[in-house]
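Supplementary material to the annual report.
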Amino acid sequence: SRDAHSARHPDIFGTDMQHELAPMIEERLESLRALIGDTRLMVIRCRYQGRELTVCAKYEVQNFTGSIKDRMALHIMEDAYAHGAVEPGDTIVEATSGNTGIAFSAVGRALGHDVRIYMPDWMSRERVMVIQSLGAEIVPVTAEEGGFLGSIARAEAYAEEHEHVFAPRQFETQSNIDAHRLTTGPEIRRQLEAAGIEACAFVAGVGTGGTVMGVHAYARERMHGMRVHPLEPANSPTLRTGHRVGKHRIQGISDEFIPAIVDLDMLDDIVDVWDGDAILMAQQLASKFGLGVGISAGANFLGAVKLAYEAGEGSAVATIFCDSNKKYLSTDLCREEPAKDEYLTPDVELLGCRVIPGPGLPWRSGL
Ligand code: PMP
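Predicted assembly:
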């Protein structure tokens, strides 16, 4: 495929090469830019073990398909068009188990592409149906065929064997990091400034690691002093071990390997959160504030509470509410979850929530 070709010969499709875009594509990209990013910041006050703390969370539910992955899908397509790695009529081929598939399906179809998604065959029926309803084709991959890693291998094989294919490769591409360096990071800085809050740290669960690496890259340039921590499930410490260790229920983070774009040496300490604790926290955010967020949002909130507590009374930490509860209706998120001694949620008291609007368009200046 052209993209595989460009990966092998980066000098031919070098990053400084800007292609003239068809006006129709530019117009469609412009519409997508108006639908993606510029999300609100939820400033949540809480008390944990006697300390009053603030968690500032980007409300990514507002995006086009309702998750943070829309930022990545759009930016990868923008970069690919700018560098001639994709052309109208190409089929987008990606391996994913969730939000990335939904994001590429919607963004891909909006740009006029066919979309082919490889995913493990045990994913929930809702996920499959959402992707199919967006006009994409799903290729199910069984556990015997390698499950998640098998999906990546099969997507790669398809891209190698066919012409007119664009393979985004979310776990490897710098465009994934750049999506957050150019949008998520600058938005957080502006919104914290507008709220008059200084956050000592940012924390985010690692799926591809695009969010945490991109915010880190921006923070290093423009938010000196803000630490950036990756987060993973305590039940399945892939980042600490380099491979899949156990099972966990925080969908969207901690797959079976450390993604190529993640450089742990650049980041601050790994934060661990139990999946049951994340579920309890997401339930509490929904029932106290009406914030119907997903399980990884509960995990991120707890990671922020942990870091803010360590930093001391009155501290603030920024994080992400990656998606809504809608894709988890048939999961433990909507069942009664037993509390355990090591959980934080039973000691977290939610005090209040105020909303900081998005900083506005154009938000891609990178400033
Ligand atoms: N939470 C959810 C629900 C996700 O779908 C993802 C993306 N896989 C993440 C968190 C992690 O984001 P990233 O891929 O940028 O690390």
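The CA atoms of residues 213 and 263 lie 8 Å apart.
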